[in-house]
Amino acid sequence: MTDGTQQYELLPPRASALVESLRDMGYSLKTALADVVDNSITAGAQHIRLFADTHEEIPAIGILDDGTGMTKNELLEAMRPGTRSPLDARDATDLGRFGLGLKTASFSQCRRLTVVTRKGEELSAAVWDLDAVATRDEWVVEIPDAPGGVRWANRLDGNGTLVVWEKLDRLVGAAQGGSGGDLLLQLDEAATHIEFVFHRFLAGRGQVKISLNDRPLEPFDPFHSTHPATQHHPDEDMTLAGKPIRIRPVTLPHHDKVSSTEWRRYAGPQGYVPNQGFYLYRNRRLIVHGTWFRLARKLELTKLARVAIDIPNTMDAEWKIDVKKASAQPPPPVRKRLKKIVDRLADPSRRTYRARGPGQATRNRLPVWTRIQNKNRVSYDIAHEHPTLQAFREGLAPDQMHDYDRLLKLVSSSLPIDSLHHDVSANPEVVDAIAMPKADIRTLAADLIQVLEARDLPPDAIANHLRSADPFQTQWDDIADLLDGLRR
Ligand SMILES: Nc1ncnc2c1ncn2[C@@H]1O[C@H](COP(=O)(O)OP(=O)(O)OP(=O)(O)O)[C@@H](O)[C@H]1O
Ligand SMILES: [Mg+2]
Q: For the chain, where do the domains classified as CATH 3.30.230 start and end?
């Protein structure tokens, strides 16, 4: 072939080879299903139904939507690998980019992809069967003559589209059977994934309903946005080349503020520490979650920090969005900004943690234990200035005082830091100090009042002393009457 002086050879890809390679773009069942759901949402579906026939002789998975549907020509175009260029401009609500997802996601899980679609009067179907492509070594699609006979097609009553996966070689194993249990587990994970990545669509205005085998999926909002104890920090919105980027940092409620069920739910599957970080949404669809984009380490101290980033689909190239919509990288100017945000965030999240800790002087409270920070070392010691301890010590004979000091040193120097750290990191909600019986607290308070009275302190000063010290401060209701007696 020549074009003026330049010579060309036609070199189309080998169908039988390339079609197999298209299967290995790194999808899992959950990312593949999400990619197909993307198409349904883009097509304006209000109701998306996922079906999984795992016990039938021929296991199959179906995704049915009530979106716009397609004409026969649109369907054929949709079936074409690379039907649209990633360089094309897209509608502002389009979740697609590459013209590949339907095919690559489906082929990653099955060897037979059927699409049945209805638009107006037109009901059409087309099938990619990878075995047929392999045998003929040509990009051939089958056109079934009875689209209505396809599994689940009878439920396509108005406009809409049905995607069916059969020959699930990777899900049920080449010999079929055997790993069926694993498929159920994967389906369960996929349902959780969809509740997560589409949570903004599943809740609120213009709500989309998604079900799996008729079980409605519920939105899972990783920001626990509606809880009153969730701290919403000031917005950090910015623009890049005129395009808006919304950045909303949040500190999740401390476990004191939520029920233990909620605490576990919002931890996410792997727990709070791995799930801290940025959550990137593209057109309201979650792309990446729980990463600081290598700008910071995931620390126990920042485990409640999560930052929502919202980008439009016009920034895909800058963010390096991949075909699976499961990875992205912030462009350099955004990285700079994000770095500042992470550094700032480390603070409120720490405060949330300290508030419950041994108490801080800033909170006007005298704890029994005190936190001592020296350069970058932190240690804990018994607070010798605590009124109860002080009063007790002053009542001792000089040699007993030495014994007493040694005793306290023994206790404070043997704080089991490692085991505490381990327990608090693994399961903070089950770790607690041993509660002191009410009667003992009263006795301690009464003793202290007596000592302070003997020092001729006026009643108000005595009350202030008690009010500032643990455990009286936190159990005030139980001892307040002792002070009334004093005033009288
Ligand atoms: N459920 C559906 N309803 C209506 N049209 C659909 C549906 N699924 C796919 N299409 C059409 O088929 C086209 C190809 O879909 P495909 O998922 O392969 O690529 P894409 O969505 O354009 O981009 P990406 O590769 O990023 O997913 C879509 O652009 C859309 O026009
Ligand atoms: Mg798509």
A: 231-356
* pLDDT one-digit tens code per residue, 424-477: 777 777 778 888 888 888 888 888 888 888 888 888 888 888 888 888 887 888
pLDDT number for residue 2: 67
The predicted pLDDT at position 358 comes to 40
CATH of 231-356, one of 3.30.230, 3.30.470, 2.60.40, 1.20.1420: 3.30.230
| Structure letter (DSSP) for residue 223 | T
The order of strands in the sheet holding 60-65 is 122-129, 112-119, 160-166, 60-65, 47-53, 209-212, 215-216
Is the CB of 100 inside a 6 Å radius of any atom of ligand 1?
yes
- Residue 410: phi and psi, rounded to 5, are -60, -45
Distance between Cα 442 and ligand 2 center (Å) = 68
Q: Is the CB of 98 under 6 A from ligand 1?
A: yes
On whether the 15-216 domain is CATH 3.50.50.60, my answer is no
User: How many angstroms is it from 9 CA to the middle of ligand 1?
Assistant: 31
The best mutation among 27, 39, 70 to test binding of ligand 1, ranked by most ligand atoms within 8 Å of the C-beta, falls on 39
β-strand pairing of 209-212 with 47-53:
parallel
Residue 11 has pLDDT above 50, yes or no: yes
Average pLDDT over residues 180-205: 90
As a whole number of angstroms, the distance between CA 184 and CA 179 comes to 9
The pLDDT score that the predictor gives to residue 365 is 62
pLDDT for 56 equals 80
> Using CA atoms, how far apart are residues 285 and 288, in angstroms rounded to an integer?
9
Range 356-361, long-range pairs (CB < 8 A, 24+ positions): 356/254, 356/256, 359/470
Which range, 219-228, 365-374, 392-401, 411-420, has the best average confidence (pLDDT)? 219-228
- Whether the per-residue pLDDT at 352 is higher than 60: the answer is no
The CA dihedral of 85, 86, 88, 90, to the nearest 10 degrees, is 120
- Report whether residue 118 contacts ligand 1, using a CB cutoff of 6 Å: no
> Does the C-beta of 323 come closer than 6 Å to ligand 1?
yes
Judge if the beta carbon of residue 387 lies within 6 A of ligand 1.
no
Does residue 245 register a pLDDT over 90? Answer: yes
Question: Is residue 126 lining ligand 1, measured as CB closer than 6 Å?
Answer: no
Query: 220: which DSSP letter?
Result: -
Tell me, using a 6 A CB cutoff, whether residue 78 lines ligand 1: yes
CA of 188 to the centre of ligand 1 (A): 25
